[in-house]
Amino acid sequence: MEKAAPDSNDPGAKGRESRFASADRAARESGEEDRMKMPLMLAAGAALAMSLTHARAGEVVAGEERYLENCVNCHGKTGKGMASFPAVAGRDPSYISERLTTYRAKEMVGPNSAIMMSLAEDLSDEDIANLAAYIASTFQ
Amino acid sequence: VPPFADVTFGKLRIWSSEQVPYDAVTALKNLLTHGASGLNVRQQQQLRKQPAQRNPGGDLMNSGLCRRGSTSLFAMVTAAMALGAPALAQSGMNTTSLSHSVVLSDLESPWDVAFLDDGTMFFTEKCKGLSVLMPSGEVNALLGMTGTDGYATPADDLFCEGQAGMMGVAVDPAFAENRRIYVYSTSNMSDPHTNRLMRFVVSDDFTSVSDRTDIVDDVPYKMAASDHPFGGPGAHNGGRVRWGPDGYLYLTTGDNHNPEIPQSPTLMGSKVLRIDADGNAAPENSPPEGFDPRTYTYGHRNVQGITFHPENGTPIVVEHGPWHTDETTVLVNGGNGGWDPRPNMAGRDDCPDDYCGYSPNQMDGMNRFERAAFMPMTDLETYPDAMVPIWENNGWSQGSASTTFLTGEQWGDWDGTMVVGLMGIGFGGTAFGMRIDVMELGDDGMSVADVTEMTLPMEPGRFRSLVQGPDGSLYAVVDEGTIHKLTPN
């Protein structure tokens, strides 16, 4: 037996359609339609977030390696600085990047510029981004 | 002369050419003697980053420790291995095994420590002040600098800026009777500001200090920034205070980036002062005619380490070099350290802000021997009678800041050796070099027979002060905020 298609002359069908339409309206009004799409969006978002997180984690790991090689001796394991070397803790990524870029360009900033110019001269843009990510995310 | 190694009386000696970095030489010695365990923690980490190698020399060559002079060093490695280096495990070199504990941590730029016989430990922090760690473990905040809270005795004229602040501390040899302590700090009591050596009396319960007497109030302070590396205010104050076995107090000072100070007869920077407990000159001092009688030696750059030979009492200092040549020098009463950074002399023309101390090419790396020829730490051409250093750190500047002798049978082969703490700099391709060197002096006490890098049981740091405690252990003060205790096993 064929299943009858909904027909506007079929009161039952009309009623069902009406219920469906009503439900659709209600769903749209309530945002349920968006919620129905949410799993897909979440999946896409999660994938993007994971991708970004991995990229971020990669930056942080690479930044840590460079920090331990070049920076820890004067700025310390917690970034608080020591002796006449200032703290980097609490600095945001843009500050760190700007300073390192300035030092790399051999531009004077403060009394320790000579040593910072020396240490920054071989840093790539990626190195600087990694260091900024590590410092800003690790030393609050 | 090519580099080579030999084995004499069971000890490995490496005759390093000027092309071989010192850290690589010491790492090689330690590696050949002990394998990877002979390297310090950082060096072992570097090794672990490399794939497995076929031999220890290969490990070293691939470890990143030999960035410079690798060809020469490889020849040296080959020579050393051909000479039977594995047998050196029994040689006694660097065989002292150390255990380690943290005495205090989370300090703010600790600078120096001084002990009483019962283990009571006074310590300074550069921007905070003077405190004491009691044998019970209690810490009492004694003398507070401006801007601090919680110190029993405030001293608002004491401040920190750049390299300046509260530095050396020493207790009176007769502390049990007079309870006197001596502290060196930057002060704004006078204008221009100065560095002062102050004497205090410690209360019976070790909770406060009193009776401040400024026994030296005129060590110059750098008031304004200049166009030099580390050129901010407060540069080069020296800062170590120690009692000598002759019963006098020794204070080391620095040049402030001021070209006139080192050879000045009256400005008390760049000197080693020898005075009594009231700040009066030791009558035996014999500086040149016209010099301030408190002068024991002059013509230094920035002396931060002083110790005394345990047998003959002779003072020995270590000081920072300017992008080259850290020096260890046996002092001679009235002697000249030979540092004279003035422009338009000794073959030099004008220099930035009239101070040639970092010239030439002060903001960029260059060959350290070319630097030394242009601006020598000890200018023996201009001052032929200057004191000749016994050790120059293979021409590197890595910040030798502290020194003491290890004494006592517990140190085994190192009993009677001198240790030197290096803070590490890392400018212009120079290896950072944070470490403690163990120097074996010649029988005459006037030369260096051997230098070995101490195998540390903890991460290296900027070693600001080294002091042997009354328990015979070595206490190492690190800028980052820790006081370590190193005990031979």
Structure description:
The complex is a heterodimer of chains A (140) and B (489). Chain A is mainly α and 140 residues long. Chain A has helices at residues 11-30, 32-70, 72-75, 93-104, 113-120, 125-138. The longest helix of chain A is centred in the middle third of the chain and has 39 residues, at 32-70. Residues 1-31 of chain A have low confidence and may be disordered. Chain B has helices at residues 22-34, 41-48, 56-61, 70-82, 175-178, 368-374; strands at 4-8, 11-15, 98-104, 110-115, 121-125, 129-133, 139-145, 153-155, 166-171, 180-187, 194-202, 209-220, 241-243, 249-252, 272-275, 295-297, 303-308, 315-319, 327-330, 400-405, 418-422, 435-441, 448-453, 463-468, 474-478, 482-488. The longest helix of chain B has 13 residues, at 22-34. Classes of the chains: A mainly alpha (140), B mainly beta (489).
Give me the secondary-structure topology.
The complex is a heterodimer of chains A (140) and B (489).
Chain A: H1 11-30, H2 32-70, H3 72-75, H4 93-104, H5 113-120, H6 125-138
Chain B: E1 4-8, E2 11-15, H1 22-34, H2 41-48, H3 56-61, H4 70-82, E3 98-104, E4 110-115, E5 121-125, E6 129-133, E7 139-145, E8 153-155, E9 166-171, H5 175-178, E10 180-187, E11 194-202, E12 209-220, E13 241-243, E14 249-252, E15 272-275, E16 295-297, E17 303-308, E18 315-319, E19 327-330, H6 368-374, E20 400-405, E21 418-422, E22 435-441, E23 448-453, E24 463-468, E25 474-478, E26 482-488
Helix pairs in contact in B: 1-4
